[in-house]
């Protein structure tokens, strides 16, 4: 059905990540490409917290390691990309760069910040130049099930 799928995996539960990866694999054309994208939101360098200088590098390496392991465990062949930036912008940019014909995301329970800032999913839907599929199945994440 789809030649190139950007599968956005956030900080949700492991169950959500598994469901998204399996759905991406099921929707992929023979010979197609899945790009699993995880975005680490920008942390201003003048943030009041004292973070080690290597925080971003370490976070990126750890996220990539976990995603590679999960894809291998599920037998889902995918290219893993971890970027730093604004999640919605990075997802839309990646889709344009890769000429993707689908972005696959998961929604979450709406909270007050979504009304004030709008959600990542909403921004991607508005800006994407390709189809966007939103998995709306709510999970009840447990501490030991988190992907990140």
Automatic annotation (TrEMBL):
Signal peptide: none annotated. Coiled coil: none annotated. Residues 1-134 form the UspA domain. Belongs to the universal stress protein A family. This is Nucleotide-binding universal stress UspA family protein.
